[in-house]
Write a structure and sequence with these properties.
single chain; alpha/beta; Rossmann fold; SDR_fam; SDR family oxidoreductase; NAD(P)-bd_dom_sf; Sc_DH/Rdtase_CS; oxidoreductase
Length: about 260
C-alpha cells in the first residue's frame, strides 16, 4: 500500500508520462495511478510496459493506458499525445521522464551519436510539452515536471552528451515556465541522484561504487525509484501552486 500523501486534485486528472514503463518511470506511473489519476504512459519497451499496465489495472480507479512509441520520432510524440487526449481528455499533468544514460567516450563520439543522444534525452522534453500545451492553455492550468539529473553537476566525464542534455533540460524548464506561466501552467524539474533501477544495477552498480555514493549522501541508504514519486506528486498537485521554474534535487543530500 502506498505511503504517499493523497492529493485530491490528482483524482481523475489526465496525466501523461514519458518513459513510464520501466525504472523511475514505472514507479511514477504506479504513483499517479494510485492517486486515482487517468494515466497514459509512453514507452518503447513494449513487453515490460504491457505487463505494468495489466498489473496496475487490477486495482486502479482508472486503468492506465500504455502507448508504444519511439520518442525520437516527433510525429510519434504528437500522435501519442493525441491518443492520450482522446482517451482521457487534455492532459493537465505532463511528466517528462524518458531518458537513456548511455556511457560514451568523448574522443570516440560521432556527430550522429551526439544527435541521436540529444534526440532521446532532450528533444522529446520540448516536443512533448509542445504537444500538451494547447490543451493546458485552453484549460487555463497545468503542470509539467521534467526529469533532469544531478550527473551534469558532478563533472562526470563518461557521458558528455547525456550530461549536456540534462543541463539543457534545466534551461528548457525555465524557458517553458516563463512562456507558459501567464497561461496558468507551472513547469519544474526534478534532479535525482543515483537511483537504483534494475538497469543501473545490471550495468553499472558495484558494491564499492554504491558505498562511495552513500558515503557522500546525508541520508545513508540507496535511492530507490519509489523515492522519486513523492516529489513528483507534490509538484504535480495544487500543494505546489506557487512553485514554478525550480529544480528540486532529490539525491539524499549528496550535493
Amino acid at each position: 500500500m502506498s505511503t504517499h500523501p493523497r492529493y485530491p486534485d490528482l483524482v481523475d486528472a489526465a496525466v501523461l508520462i514519458t518513459g513510464g514503463g520501466t525504472g523511475i518511470g514505472a514507479a511514477l506511473t504506479e504513483g499517479f495511478v494510485d492517486q486515482g489519476a487517468k494515466v497514459a504512459f509512453i514507452d518503447i519497451a513494449q513487453a515490460a510496459s504491457e505487463a505494468l499496465a495489466l498489473r496496475l489495472a487490477e486495482n486502479a480507479r482508472h486503468a492506465p493506458l500504455f502507448i508504444h512509441a519511439d520518442l525520437t520520432d516527433l510525429d510519434a510524440i504528437k500522435r501519442a499525445a493525441e491518443q492520450a487526449e482522446q482517451a482521457h481528455g487534455p492532459a493537465t499533468v505532463l511528466v517528462n521522464n524518458a531518458a537513456f544514460d548511455d556511457r560514451h567516450e568523448l574522443l570516440d563520439m560521432s556527430g550522429e551519436y551526439w544527435d541521436n543522444n540529444q534526440a532521446i534525452n532532450l528533444r522529446p522534453v520540448a516536443f512533448a510539452a509542445k504537444a500538451v500545451a494547447p490543451g493546458m492553455i485552453a484549460a487555463g492550468r497545468g503542470t509539467i515536471i521534467n526529469f533532469t539529473s544531478t550527473s551534469y553537476m558532478l563533472n562526470i566525464g563518461a557521458m558528455p552528451s547525456y550530461t549536456a542534455a540534462k543541463a539543457g533540460i534545466v534551461g528548457l524548464t525555465k524557458g517553458l515556465a516563463g512562456r507558459l506561466g501567464p497561461d496558468g501552467i507551472r513547469v519544474n524539474a526534478i534532479a535525482p541522484g543515483w537511483v537504483m533501477t534494475e538497469r543501473q544495477k545490471k550495468l553499472w552498480v558495484t558494491d564499492e561504487g554504491l558505498a562511495a555514493m552513500i558515503d557522500r549522501q546525508c541520508l545513508k541508504r540507496p535511492i530507490e525509484p519509489e523515492d522519486m514519486v513523492g516529489p513528483c506528486l507534490f509538484l504535480a498537485s495544487s500543494a505546489a501552486a506557487m512553485i514554478t521554474a525550480q529544480v528540486l534535487i532529490a539525491d539524499g543530500g549528496m550535493m
